[in-house]
Amino acid sequence: MSGYLATGGRRDPFLPHLLEAIRRADRIDLAVAFIKSSGLALIFDALADALQFRTARLRILTSDYLDVTEPQALRRLMLLGERGADIRVFESGDQSFHLKAYITIQTQDGREVWGCAFVGSSNISRTALTDGLEWNYRVDRVGDSESTGGGPLNQICAEFESLIVHPRVCRLDDAWIDGYDERRSKLRHLPVFPDWDEPEAPRPMPNEVQLEALAALDATRAAGYRRGLVVMATGLGKTFLAAFDSERMSPARLLFVAHREEILLQAESSFQLVQPGRRVGRYTGERKDADVDLLFASVQTLGQSRHLERFAPDHFEYVVVDEFHHAAAPTYRRLLGHFRPRFLLGLTATPERTDQSDILSLCDDNLVYGRNLFDGVTLGLLCRFRYYGIYDETVDYQEIPWRNGRFDPEALSSKLATLGRARHALAHWQEKGQSRTLAFCVSRRHADFMAERFRKEGIRASAVYQGSSLDRSAALEQLERGDLQVIFSVDLFNEGVDLPAIDTVMMLRPTESKVLFLQQLGRGLRRAPDKDHLVVLDFIGNHKGFLNKPQALFDVGSGYAALADFARKARNGDLPLPPGCFATYDLAIIDFLARLQGRGPTSDYQALRESLGRRPTVAEFYRSGSSMLELRRLHGQWFALLLDQDDLDTQETRCLERQADFLREVETTAMTRSFKAVLLESLLDHDGFRQPLSVEELAEHARTVFQRRRRFIPDLRTDLQDLDDAKAGQWLRYWRANPINAWTGGNRSGQSRAWFEIREGRFLPTFYVAGEDLDSFQSMVRELVDYRFAAYEPRLTKASTGEEASERTEVQSTESARVLPFSRPTTATPARVELPYYPDLRIACGHFRRGRGDSEQRCAFADQGYGRLDPARDFVARAVGHSMDGGSRPIHDGDYLLLERIAPTHAGTLDGQVVAVERHDAGEDQYLLRRIIKTADGRYRLKANHPDYPEIEADEEMRPLARLRAVVDPVDILDLASLS
Fold this sequence. Notes:
Oligomer: single chain
CATH superfamily of the largest domain: P-loop containing nucleotide triphosphate hydrolases
Distance between the termini: 97 Å
CATH class of the largest domain: Alpha Beta
Mean pLDDT: 84
Low-confidence stretches: 798-830, 849-855, 976-980
Largest sheet: 10 strands, mixed
Strand content: 15-25%
């Protein structure tokens, strides 16, 4: 046994002594008179790590003596209680309570092998633990020499055991804190007591990006949206954003969902700082709170049906789903389908561009706000970086087995933990690295090997992972102080931890996930004093598994052609970067990317599958820029391609064999409006293939789909667009006349058969789906419906006002004939104005004809009496055919047509006007020019000028695209060459 005195002050602060003891112990007992938030923050991570990584026993006893302990500190102690700590409070009453004792014990195989205790004057406050003059006497024990004796440490431990069960001691809970907070707040003056007036930490305030996002969230709710997605890069504060936004809404109960314990821990702390008076609880495998204000839940637990059933759909008024890029998984879908909050906020730092269609559909197609990593750097919220893509020349990754989208872990670890590769990494680190490095390794073996090799070169390095001799919080402290230069880590620093001191990130392992890659990069992007920039040393090998890195950092598409184009830009130094940033790739990497060539839909699919590390959905394939028309030409339909790639399971294969015709119909059915997809989604949401719905139920469920997918509301008849006020009878009649009529064969245009029927008032398929196929069948149909919504979305852009269209940022595929890229109005002189001209958008003057609007050119007009021309609404296309060649104003084959887009919100009357009509059939857009005639019964007919062409009755598959303003005289076009 030995002892010494820690005297405090700047010469000998107490905090390092205490942290060293805590990090060594697996039994920790603290008894202090009061606790301040400022002091608890200094030891919180060490205590949390002890609970999480060493399963330590932690007991903390404090008091309400003189009401000095802060309620906020007590609420944060409750976070430790959720992780297994035993938190108690001494109710002092008329009894003084001045204890300051810290006991730490280390055991091995149930036997005490080390222990120490501090008894003195330091409570848990910043001043007492850092620069205050505080005397704390340390008592040590080595081995078990005093295990049966009555030495000082044993006596201290015994007294703690006696005190922890004192009649005045009770377990801390939210109700106790609420009562304490109320009576404490009534005090006008706190008594003079050491550190009593130490200021509390200021509450966080929104930064520039968060303020913008908060305004966008307010606006989206004002527009009627109940769900929304926010995309914010790591480091910009998306968790705090959720805390700020939910505070504005003041929900009685909030649910925060994530998939990792680390995220939940960080989120609880963030919310508690913003909303200190709220009761916090946890719903995980080990703990299931319910009666709390803020519930933080593991999706793996709460996503199970038996747990969801404990909560009514409206139990939570505000729901946050973090890491929303995972939301397409079944557990998330089940949870999102169950709850109906006032508002649901999806958060992600790193959405896959190709994922957005899927995850956006779960957020009601409502991308509220987005800021990527480059935005953060440009705004000065993240630090600048210098990125080095280094060819991993010592490893042939083609030799490492690749299964299910990832390398075999054992084989990979063996290939990476070699002397040659260590020397390669060391050379680049010595040349480019800075003073505080975090290196990501693939395994414990790899981390230990790298740390040892660096230490042999005189570099202060350590391996840190769960169970390592150096724990995470201690390693970070040593790195910040300069005691360590490099931390080689395995899975402890990917997310949920702020590391502002890191100035170099070394990526020594492949990361099959783009999300993981950006999370690791983000670990070093936090700003810190005296930190000018981050150095990134990224080791990239000769394997397709590395393609996700340029895709993630530079938002490169998933196709091989996109990667080859990226390689060209990298070679030419044309990569887009924020100011003050730098990126370079070794030529061997650029050559590897340049050799990749796309070979059609199959190659695009394979590239996307490798990029995502899983089977892509059809919406993701469409969003990636691949051609659905070419896919169907070669394979017939989406699931046939998956079958060819051996990517369907047994049940899915059986469904494709039995239901191929219907699946193709869903994939290609004519859909000028969103109604058919809305009906199918209504059916799927309520298990309508298993339990048929009445027509009335189906119509009402469709109304809820529109309430979520508000961007499709303009498809509805004007008097029904106010969904809350639309009369049930009118809504039902409208829904019967449109998609129900279409799906039941009432409108055979473009449809070979009736796929559904109404029998005894219920909406039923006309085909049989076996019970054992239902789950797979409905999942396959839902995937196709998600695609139809994704493919339909650009059509909304075309139908919106010009300014709205120019500001939309949806990713558009190279196939997007549907997307007319109208631009914002430009300033023009009175004598000249430029309009978009689409040479491939042929307006048929005959029968419906396929056209393309993805090859915009510009043409300059002289001011020759066409009226005010608006480049955001007006455009030029060619007439094809002779059906309008007649009457007083004939339109001839080849004429140039000046057309004005029709916005559904202010189309006005079309009766008697010449209009370009659009319909979508078999995956193609088709266009026809006709005069619109409204009949006495309120229907519309399309009339040609030429008598040889019969009238056509308009149906719901047709949409007015643009009204004819004039046939243009070519002499009025100044830049006629662009039209030739």
